[in-house]
Amino acid sequence: MQRSFTYKKILKGIIIAIVFGLYQSLSSIYLLLPPLFGVLFFYFIHSLQKENLPALVLIIVLLLIFEAEKDFLLFSSLVYFTFVYRFVIPRLRVMISCRICLKVLLMILAYPGFILYSIVLNHVLWVEVPTADWHIFYYMFIEFFMVLSL
């Protein structure tokens, strides 16, 4: 007799979202824990390329948790990721064939690019700009090796 759990992927996504929420709260307390923004960017691009809708919905939920924890504007990272995926990534893929170089550029687009996008939003909508300090370079370095291993 075979047993199968019908909602295994949904349960796994809920558990991932809960663990990510706990991790985000810890990363706000302990600044040496990276917030995994670059990893979410990598998985966002990966799920769009593979056309994996459940993974994309999970990434969107994780981005909303990230934005809520870091006090960013609602859907700002999602709009930024979509803009970069539609207009910047195709041009980079034409110019760069090295996979490691492309992953480095993805980390550069994730953190400093989002801060520049937030500065533009500040000038247009008068919203608060996220603070940028030396931790961003540390986060980019750590998350680059995390993305490199994926």
Task: Produce a short descriptive summary.
By secondary structure, this protein is an all-alpha fold. Helices cover 77% and strands 0% of the residues.
What is the fold's blueprint, element by element?
Elements: H1 8-29, H2 37-50, H3 53-70, H4 76-95, H5 99-125, H6 135-148
User: Could you tell me the strand content as a percent range?
Assistant: under 5%
Number of helices: 6
User: Low-confidence spans: pLDDT under 50, at least 5 residues?
Assistant: none
Shape: globular
Q: Strand count, sense and closure of the main sheet?
A: none
* Total count of strands: 0
Mind explaining what this structure looks like?
With 150 residues, the protein is mostly helical. 77% of the residues lie in helices and 0% in strands. It has 6 helices and no strands. Helix 2 (37-50) packs antiparallel against helix 3 (53-70) and helix 2 packs across helix 5. The termini are far apart. The model has no long low-confidence stretch (mean pLDDT 88).
